[in-house]
């Protein structure tokens, strides 16, 4: 009887094993077919030369430009606003300030006073001590969670070059690299593409961590060629000038493969594209 039970047990184990293998191969039931093992959603990768609209002043005017990409404020726009843009066939970027505290944001009280530095030149804003990773990371994670829940495709994290400014903290280039890579990781972990905003000196170290670039005034300061690594990598450079007339910067922008336009300082709906 002992031998009979042994053979019976072996037959049962063999049958279960065959069933498990077949189930796994068919993609039904457990195993690789479960959502927990599913591959991460592929990130959106904007290509060089893609036209865009950038509006940070209030709620988006979804009819202001017939372009495939809109970059809008993550707090001031709703999931319905993002969905409306998606229905029009557009990708949508979520603007979030990651380098300064803003006294007009709903999560302003989540920032400990110890991370608040000097003013950055914009009313109601103060630089952040980006060395305080353990304090800032949870706040930025919640902000990027908001972008994801509203349906955004990507994030534009602003003020990621505080090390080059008078922030009130002894920030170094290494501090900034560490923080910026963390910001990119937070976005990617949520299935969001992420752009490097300005920070031209650190492009060689960061181009592989970011999916596109956002730049202000590279033509005015004769720096646009420094964005070439993004274009060579097949990644868009969304570029804006505020005071330069388009006839001065558009020829070079087209030559370099930049997505360029002129905007007003208030970043309203008006635009003049190359």
UniProtKB/TrEMBL annotation:
Residues 52-269 form the Glycoside-hydrolase family GH114 TIM-barrel domain. Gene3D superfamilies: Aldolase class I. It comes from the Bacteria. PANTHER family: ALPHA-1,4 POLYGALACTOSAMINIDASE, PUTATIVE (AFU_ORTHOLOGUE AFUA_3G07890)-RELATED (PTHR35273), ALPHA-GALACTOSIDASE (PTHR35273:SF2). This is Endo alpha-1,4 polygalactosaminidase. It comes from Streptomyces tsukubensis. The lineage of its organism: Bacteria, Bacillati, Actinomycetota, Actinomycetes, Kitasatosporales.
